[in-house]
User: What shape does this take?
Amino acid sequence: QVRLVESGGGLVQPGGSLRLSCVASGSIFSITAMGWYRQAPGKERELVATITLGGTTNYADSVKGRFTISRDSSKDTVDLQMNSLKAEDTAVYYCNAELYTYNRGQENSWGQGTQVTVSS
Assistant: This one.
């Protein structure tokens, strides 16, 4: 069974920075892509940023130039550096991994989420 655990959320003032981290563990054969999604109250979950095994990144337009996703494939971790945070970045942030396990093949796994609140 695969488990994704996020950390690093919290309360920050507008213009501030936070760094989210996610660690994948379990019966993982390989991870093809990892990413971050977020869901604000009353809204659907949306993509924030993704990164492939080869290092190709993709960002939502709303975070381009402010957020940076990075990955350590040797440790099955993915980080999201968030700078110049705005009130509209307030949401629960979820880690995601597209991966292959040893016993169940291809899976799409989610973390439990971490709250990010941007407020003065």
Observations:
- The chain is about 0% helix and 60% strand.
- Residues 8 and 120 are 19 Å apart (CA to CA).
- The mean pLDDT is 96.
- The longest strand covers residues 28-39.
